[in-house]
Amino acid sequence: MRRVNTTRERIKTAALNLFAEQGFAGTSIAAIETAAGLAPRAGAFYRHFPGKQALFEELARERITETPDEFDFEGLRAFGDTRAELISLARQFETAAERQRPYLRLIGEVRLTESGKSFEQEANETMLHALMEWIATRPAGKELDSGRLAALTMNVFGSWLFYLAKRQQGIDFAALDRDTLLENWAGTWSAVLDAGD
Hints:
Layout: H1 7-22, H2 29-35, H3 44-48, H4 52-64, H5 68-71, H6 73-76, H7 82-100, H8 104-111, H9 114-135, H10 146-168, H11 178-194
């Protein structure tokens, strides 16, 4: 049976907390080791990770960025209804946004680095590709070339992601009810995506 609180997991938890509090650049490996209950500069960190950047990238993949796997595109087929599938996808994006909220400072800081830009580009392209594949199964997406399919995908999800981004920033739209927005968004786009039979 696998121990839940392994040294590797303790390092990751300590690092994520320190990165969120102090930023990536402001967090030393020695501070991570200390917070994880390890002797600083004794080498335990390097038995698990080649460096701070590699640790961050693993954390980002696991806990910060959204991935097609967590959205369970295969499981969406069980709904058999475009509107219900859109609502499920929207809720997954909402869950990812809430998970990311404590790390916005860290995400912003890492975006300024070359490896951060590269990582974000790769993550965004992977997610866009998965969303495009899903839309390509709808009548409106079946005959589109990749450029038009990408444009349709950005149009479908753009307004919901804009809403989530503004909510993450603490902006409240007094006249906008989240549930009404979600219902209208899913209803409108399911009608568009299901057209073309």
